[in-house]
DNA sequence: CACCATGTTCCTTG
DNA sequence: CCAAGGAACATGGT
């Protein structure tokens, strides 16, 4: 379930575990995840290098490393795709069937596994150049967001998935943010007025921040118990009760279920080939002039 | 068996 | 040239 918040939580867990660790061995089982580079170049760069930090940009994990032999520090870029996981385990733990890359760190190892192999762990950082502002940083200004919407007639929900407009929002949090902002996902992006854009911007920030906070407090499957040692996963820790992650969502994957706010059935539509969930009452295309929905004040 | 899935990139269409 | 739509990628879950 990797969108910005999940990646952020993962990065916070990985950073202290990886920092200072030296890579002793590199095993690439699925060369497609390191492309466009070659296995030989990948191994040559990584063996002997030392992790100096892990940070996040949009849904990407940014690993910084120092080379062992005086060469310049460099960056390794990770992306979880749809199903990727990254974690550190003991060297003795059983490797998963879909291990794509394994980095030996002495007594432990870093594992990147991905059942669908849509993810990446690569020396190619060019994807970062195409990203828009980080939604939780000051560069994501109301003016920049509004003007970014201004040129497109695309539905607002579809626009939110464009990583060049705002980086890190995915299919789940796009629906969630529009619900919080009480905006119809079908609104043409260029029809949002300044006030609506400002409201949506705040909803995006709030939804993402709350998801990060949630992920930071829920018990994680980290060096858990027994042989299944894994790093990370939202609400999936051994012994965790119920599906916490799912319980927090207001509309996503809730078609037919009652809106948590008004009780009307949540709807699901398809936009640009992706599912969108919304409440037809709380997110009308034309906001009713009712207290709490006021189209404008002042 | 059919259909769906958290993401990104590339190709085609208009 | 640009915007928008759709397929492709590969596999697992329901």
The fraction of residues assigned to DSSP E strands is 15-25%
Structural class: alpha+beta
Look at the structure and give the mean pLDDT.
88
Terminal CA distance: 41 Å
**Rg measurement, Å:** 21 Å
Layout: helices, strands, pairs:
Elements: H1 4-18, E1 25-28, H2 39-46, E2 50-57, E3 60-66, E4 74-79, E5 84-90, E6 99-105, E7 108-114, E8 120-122, H3 142-149, H4 156-160, H5 171-181, H6 194-217, H7 244-247, E9 267-271, E10 274-278
Antiparallel strand pairs: 1-6, 2-3, 3-4, 4-8, 5-7, 6-7, 9-10
Helix pairs in contact: 1-6, 3-6, 5-6
The chain binds a DNA duplex (14 and 14 nucleotides) through residues 1-3, 6, 32, 59, 79-83, 98, 114-120, 127, 151-154, 158, 161, 163, 170-173, 252, 272-273, 275.
Please provide a written account of the structure.
A hairpin with a 7-residue loop joins strand 3 and strand 4 (74-79). Helix content is 25%, strand content 20%. With 298 residues, it is α+β, with helices and mostly antiparallel strands. The two termini are 41 Å apart. The model is unreliable at 222-242 and 294-298 (pLDDT under 50). It is elongated. It is built from seven helices and ten strands. The strands form three sheets. Strands 1-6-7-5 form a four-stranded antiparallel β-sheet, covered by helices on one side. It binds a DNA duplex (14 and 14 nucleotides) through residues 1-3, 6, 32, 59, 79-83, 98, 114-120, 127, 151-154, 158, 161, 163, 170-173, 252, 272-273, 275.
